[in-house]
Write a structure and sequence with these properties.
Elements lengths: L14 E7 L4 E5 L10 E3 L9 E5 L3 E6 L2 E9 L2 E5 L7 E6 L4 E7 L1
Parallel strand pairs: 2-3
Antiparallel strand pairs: 1-9, 2-8, 4-7, 4-9, 5-6, 5-8
Length: 109
């Protein structure tokens, strides 16, 4: 029996963006695309989908969409770090601050 372990190492670019959202507000993170950051959109300009993402939050928050598709069950982000390192290829994600003003730090490569 052969067991293969695949670890995504990210692409050759990386970016880190910090922003704050009020309760109930959302922001869309664009990993592949380039553009001008606004209150509703953050651009990472990786030139490819993100293979590694770490999302730090200081209050309750969720991922509501991945690659422009609404999730049937949004992913809850815990206070502190939320690493996603294996099996992802995200072009975009949409994040929502759930209860209070929330600061996000999103690292992608």
């Amino acid at each position: 029996m052969t067991i293969e372990h695949v670890h995504m190492v990210g692409n050759s670019k990386r970016e880190n963006i910090i922003f704050t959202l009020n309760a109930g507000k959302t922001v869309k993170c664009h990993f592949k695309s380039s553009g001008v950051d606004t209150a509703d959109d953050k651009y990472y300009d990786l030139g490819d989908s993100a293979k590694k993402v770490r999302i730090m939050v200081d209050n309750a928050a969720t991922i509501t969409h991945i690659n422009n598709k609404a999730l049937k069950s949004p992913i809850t982000l815990t206070v502190g770090g939320n690493p996603y390192r294996e099996g992802i290829q995200w072009m975009t994600i949409t994040l929502r601050a759930d209860l209070d003003s929330t600061t996000f730090e999103v690292y992608a490569s």
